[in-house]
Amino acid sequence: MEPQDRRPRAVPQGRLSRMLRIGGLATGIGGRALAQGARQMAGGQRPRAQDLLLTPANAARLAGQLAQMRGAALKMGQLLSMDAGDFLPPELTAILARLRADADPMPPKQLQRVLDAAWGRDWLRKFTRFQVQPIAAASIGQVHRAQTKDGRDLAIKVQYPGVRASIDSDIANLGLLLKIPGVMPPGVDLPALMEEARTQLHAEADYLREAEQMRRYADHLAGQPEFLVPVPDAEFSTPDVLAMTYIESRPIEALADAPQLLRDQAAARLARLVLDELFRFDLMQTDPNFANYRWQPDSGRIVLLDFGATRGFSSSVAPDYLQLLTAALRNDRAAVRQAAIDIGYFRAETDQDHQDHQDMLMQMMDLAFAPLRAGGTFDVAATDIPQRVAEMAMQVAQTRVRAEMPPPEILFLHRKIGGLYLLLARLRARVDLDDLLDTARLRDQLEARG
């Protein structure tokens, strides 16, 4: 859904205002669940709390309120829709998935107050054109197109007011809502997700940091003309406003109608880029939203956007993943298990309940690695492996055994890899796995990085 189709609504400001909204949401969900439960019991049924709370109506209310609040509340909803998506009912997953696309834009008067504070009250005199209607609206800011008096064509990301100050309280308050029995599926490490959302939001809310990450990422891409990254504009960038060159492009999904060769070419570049991020750059843009990829039909270049979620990894992550990949390609189950332990998927020693969980994880890995071992050309959209892995994940969740969650940085790596897969499937692309997964090349890149 494009931002112009969404009704502008003021961003709630102040900790008390935002806390009351989340509290009211929890009360409303709980009240409707009690009423529905009473009706079912009167009819002789014995409803489960999870069935009463995880309803489409409650999911729609949750998504709508998070979209209006923006900030940490919306980011948490986005994380839940991706990281817990395999465990949630399809209706809830579909409604929460809306949060990954866009948010409600703020009204023009609120926008003007933010820009007045950032640039001074006479800022409009520096522009020949400033498009008040946003061209995009996301969790912590919305983007406008503008042209300066000296002819610079800019995309200007404006942070919603109060977002930075409300991050910690939003996360804490939302945690209370998510602790309602039945709202979260078993096996999801809620504290880890909340802490990771808090850390990421603080990073993403610093637009000067994002500008620097954008420059660093562009430096890594030097000599790779197939990609294009906007250039930050220092004159109009502040901690609350990020100005950058506007790049004419189309949504990456437009490639879905292109000839097969073009789709496969783009897929190979995107997949290689993720490996470069991990093994060569140690700098990954971890937000897999499709909107962060654009396409230039005339030049054939892929435009990369939004570097607020860009991060590096602990020094052991890339070597451990290379060990995992090498072991998987050799079909060495013992080495795969050791690599999984080194990464943090599970511990070397555990009780029987968690041993069952480990066995299921090993089966899921074996299934996921099967195409890699087969090699050759992999038709991403033609396989049912993701659905089968999701079914196995659902079985793990239904055991009500608490999962041994990997470190938070690994969750974000998973999000990027999962997002890449979804994008390639959307493009109906094919990938040459033998060329892509050249472990000797990856090892050389890792050693060159030092």
Describe the structure.
The protein is of the alpha+beta class and 450 residues long. Mean pLDDT is 79; it is low at 22-53 and 82-92. Strands 1, 2, 3, 4 and 6 form a 5-stranded antiparallel sheet that branches. Helix 7 runs antiparallel to helix 8 (190-204) and helix 10 packs antiparallel against helix 15 (408-426). It is globular, with a radius of gyration of 23 Å. A hairpin with a 3-residue loop joins strand 2 and strand 3. The longest helix has 28 residues, at 15-42. It is built from 17 helices and 13 strands. The two termini are 44 Å apart. The chain is 54% helix and 11% strand. The protein has helices spanning 15-42, 49-53, 56-69, 71-83, 90-97, 108-119, 163-178, 190-204, 207-220, 260-281, 317-330, 333-343, 352-374, 385-398, 408-426, 433-436, 439-449, and strands spanning 127-130, 136-137, 141-148, 153-159, 227-228, 241-245, 250-251, 284-285, 293-296, 301-304, 310-311, 377-379, 430-432. The protein folds into 3 domains: 3-101 and 166-189, no CATH class; 107-159 and 206-246, 2-Layer Sandwich (Phosphorylase Kinase, domain 1), CATH 3.30.200; 249-450, no CATH class.
Secondary-structure element pattern, one letter each: HHHHHHEEEEHHHEEEHEEEEHHHEHHEHH
Query: What radius of gyration results from the CA coordinates?
Result: 23 Å
Number of helices: 17
Please summarize the sheet with the most strands.
5 strands, antiparallel
Structural class: alpha+beta
Number of domains: 3
CA(first)-CA(last) distance: 44 Å
In percent, how helical is the residue content?
40-55%
- Count of distinct strands: 13
Low-confidence runs (pLDDT<50, min 5 residues)? 22-53, 82-92
Overall shape: it is globular
